[in-house]
Specification:
Strand content: 35-45%
Radius of gyration: 13 Å
CATH architecture: 2-Layer Sandwich
CATH class: Alpha Beta
Number of domains: 1
């Protein structure tokens, strides 16, 4: 099993929306991926209260490394990624296998 954790810092204003609006859009977009991509076992999105400068956090699990790569390349993920990249100023990620 692979754990995939991502945190983002959002711009104060981007794509004609506030940071708060964009946080909710990204959260909703990511949550729509549940059950849509083979190998994606679990997906949680939250607003951290103790992560320093980061505004949004994704925790997800995948069947294996191949499933994580399948998710990374999947058109639904790529579509979400376009919007996310337009509204963030920073991203950090970690993947590990258990």
């Amino acid at each position: 099993m692979v754990k995939h954790i991502v945190m983002w810092k959002l711009k104060d204003f981007a794509e004609s929306r506030t940071k708060e609006e964009n946080k909710n859009i990204i959260k909703n977009n990511l949550e729509k991926l549940r059950g849509q991509i083979e190998g994606l076992l679990e997906l949680e999105v939250g607003f951290p209260f103790n992560a320093g400068a980061f505004d949004l956090c994704l925790y997800s699990t995948f069947k294996d490394k191949a499933a994580l790569q399948f998710y990374t390349d999947h058109p639904l993920h790529k579509e979400n990624q376009k919007y996310t990249r337009a509204v963030i100023s920073e991203r950090i990620a970690a993947d590990y296998e258990i």
